[in-house]
Amino acid sequence: MKWPFGRKINRQSTINAVVQSRPDYYQPYRDSLYYLPPPNDPIILESLRRALPILNAATDQLVRLTGNVKIVWDSQRVQDEWDVWAQNCRVAPLGKGFNRWLNGQQERALIGGTGASEILIDPAGRDIAGFQYLSARSLRMRVDENDPTQVVIAQQQTYNPVPVQLDPDFIVLNAHAPRDDSPYGRSLFTDIPFVAELLLEMIHAQKQNWERMGARSYAVNVEVPPGLSPGVDVGSLMNNLLSQIKTSFTEAMASRKRRGVIKDFFGAGNIKISTIGADGTELEFQIPWRSAMEQIIAATHLPSWMLGLHWATTERLSDEQAQTLEAVLNDYRDEYTPSALKVATLWAMVRGYGSAIPVAEWPETSLRDQLNAARAQAMQAQAESIRERTGMALWRSGVFDQEEYAEYVTGEETVEIATPMLEPPALPSPVGFGGSESASVGNLSARESEQKSGRLTYGV
After folding, report:
1. Which of 240-249, 316-325, 340-349 shows the highest mean pLDDT?
2. Which of 210-214, 218-222, 342-346, 384-388 shows the highest mean pLDDT?
3. Taking Cα atoms as reference points, which of 236, 81, 109 lies closest to residue 177?
4. Among 59, 124, 247, 395, which is disulfide-ready with 405 (CB 3.0 to 4.6 Å)?
């Protein structure tokens, strides 16, 4: 297989790029007096993700809605080379693609609070070989004491008690919602462990209730038949009776389960069969579960139906929700645009295009904007059709001639007439704008009602 940059892979070497970081699974967890420990507990966050799949769904939706950035260059030659590189650059260990890397960077920042990657330069120093994510558990950061606007980045590596400082020129760092002077970001789910614990307790209690009452157990109570003679051994009699009832009842239940055959059983005496636990009152689950889930969903800034929770039959994205969601997505794009431009600028430098200037372009924020634009275009086309038919009616009535009609329809003062005409041409009947012009007398009332309701757009 050919290396995407035209260089062959050295099969005898395990590293094909200059790497200064190490994978997380090589080093133990150590704190340092010189660096601040991460504020987010990765163990708790990982446990929350496993226990509540909706958190993964929220992260995926936010990354998907943010979209893919497109880097535009001022040179077509640079643009062509970038497009090829952006599609084939490697993302360790198995990924490929520039936007694949940036999406993973955002996902790690949302979940862990801090997303960090190393830009891997090929051994010749002439190209960017790819990217390697850095585990948030191994990162150690602090604010530079000489320059508070800079962050010193280090990594706890194997067999080294002191974190190893990394070159910031080859590290891409994104902190989600940092607080105060901390260089670390805060996870999107930092504020939900208490509510999540309550929700998980409810789900666990519901699970226990189903284990206890889902497959119900029965209690069989047999009373001693009256009228027994004094010499009868009641204990032996009851043991034999209970044994027969137990055998018959078990056989009846097993026949229903295994063969689907409903069988009856018979016994002597007063036999009462009741369900164990059936008289217990079960606590309300739906309302408190929804209340707790709403608190969790509020932290994601997403409407509930985007996460698969349809609490109403007519849920849709309101204007207020759309504006809020668009503001959140624009903030994410502003946050990750510098990271994309940093990589693009470094790529241009190592390839010898230092004077090239990259520009980051994002897709449209939401479908609502596109829908409103399409609706405005349709209304514009409808207005032009009405104007054309009105001008045509004035031309037929003798108010306009052909030149005045053309100026009225186009809105221009001077219009060059390609084909002079003495009479206006016949226009086809409008479709979808209120029906035919020649409405019958019997349909006048219907047309009047349409005009009152606003459904009839025009009539000439």
Report:
1. 340-349
2. 342-346
3. 109
4. 395
Query: Which two three-digit tokens encode residue 372?
Result: 């409103």
**What integer best gives the mean pLDDT of the chain?**
75
Q: CA angle at residue 13 from 7 to 18, to 5 degrees?
A: 70
Residue type, 260: G
Element (H, E) at 115: strand 114-121
> At which residue do the structure tokens 């609070």 appear?
113
In angstroms, the Cα distances linking 360 to 98, 100, 215, 229, 342 are: 13, 16, 59, 100, 11
Helix (H, G, I), strand (E, B) or coil at 176: coil
pLDDT tens-digit profile of 134-183?
988 888 888 887 787 888 888 888 777 888 889 999 999 998 888 777 78
Strand order in the sheet with 95-96: 95-96, 90-92, 128-134, 114-121, 171-175
> Rounded CA gap, 238 and 240, in Å?
5
pLDDT in tens, 21-70: 654 433 333 333 456 556 667 777 777 888 888 888 899 999 998 999 99
Which token pair is 251? 């056989």
**Separation CA 86–CA 4 (nearest Å):** 11
Distances (CA, A) of 74 to 79, 336, 340, 351: 8, 21, 16, 15
Contact in structure between 323 and 54 (CB atoms under 8 Å): no
DSSP β-ladder status, 139-143 and 151-155: antiparallel
Question: If DSSP codes are grouped into helix, strand and coil, which group holds residue 133?
Answer: strand
Q: Is the pLDDT score of 321 beyond 80?
A: no
Beta strands in 339-441 (DSSP E): 358-361
Which stretches of 217-366 are DSSP H helices?
234-258, 286-298, 319-350
CA distances from 204 to 212, 286, 398 (A): 12, 14, 83
Q: Give CA–CA dist 10/123, Å, rounded.
A: 11
Ramachandran quadrant class, 142 (left: phi over 0; alpha: psi -120 to 50; beta: rest): beta
What pLDDT is stored for residue 248 in this prediction? 77
Q: How far apart are CA 199 and CA 357, in angstroms?
A: 50
| pLDDT at residue 107, as a whole number | 92
Rounded Cα distance between 298 and 328, Å, is: 13
Q: What percent of the chain has pLDDT over 90?
A: 20
Q: Is 285 a residue whose pLDDT tops 50?
A: yes
User: The sheet that has 164-165: what strands, in order across it?
Assistant: 139-143, 151-155, 164-165
Tens of pLDDT, residues 385-406? 888 888 888 888 888 887 888 8
